[in-house]
Predict the structure.
Amino acid sequence: MDGDRLPDEVVLSMVARQLSEATGKPWHVTDGMVRGSGSVGVVLGEDHTGSPGHLDLDFVLNVDRPEETTISDCVAGYGGTTEEAVDRAIQVWLGTTGSALLELLSQDGSFAGHFAPDAPDGFPGWHAIHGGVIGWGTGDDFLAVQHWAVDNPLLSRLAPVLEGTFDRDHLIGVKAFFGGGKDTEIAEIRVNGVRHQAASERLAGLDWPRTATGLSYARTFLLLVHNETA
C-alpha cells in the first residue's frame, strides 16, 4: 500500500494497547519498548521492506538477556489507511505469534495449545506451543487453507527437515505462511525470522487445498520451547 510509515512510537502504542486488551494487564511504552510485567518487552526490529503496513516485531522474554531470549517475527496487514493496515498486522501477529508467546508466560492453555516432546503431532524431543491459526482471502472458500491447517498440525510434518538446523536448544520460533489461488501460491517457513528453504519446500509439497477461484491464505506460529534431549 502507498503512504508513509507510522512513527515507531505510534506503532508501539498500538502494540501496547492490543497486548493490554488481550491479557487484561497493562502494557506500556517506555524507552522505545513495549513493556509488560517483569522482564518482558516488545521492540520493533529493523524494517526490511519499507512497506508502511509491514512490521518487524521482536518479543523479548528477558530484556536483560535479549540475545538468548528474543523471538523475532514479521507480519503484514492490509486496510484502507496505514493505521488500519498496521492495526490489522498487530492483530494477525497477536493471534498467531503473540498467542504462543503469551502462552509461554501463562502456561495454562488460555492462549495456545501445548505438545509434549513425544506427542504424535508434536516436534520430537521438544516441548512445543502451537499458536493460533489465522486465515483470510476472497471467495467462498477463503478459509479453506485455515481449516486445513487446524486439522493438520504442521510440527510433525516439518520436523524431518528442521531437526538439526537450529543454532540453539531453546526458544525456536517457526512461522508458517501459505496459500494462494489459481494463478498464485506461496509457502514460507521462517525460523526465528529467517526463511528456511528446506522447510518452505516441504510446506509447499503438502496437500493443503488449492482453491480454483478466489484466494485462501493461512498463517500460524509454532514455538519450540526447549530441546528435552540436549
Remarks:
- The helical segments are 8-23, 66-69, 82-106, 144-151, 155-162, 197-204.
- DSSP finds six helices and eleven strands in the chain.
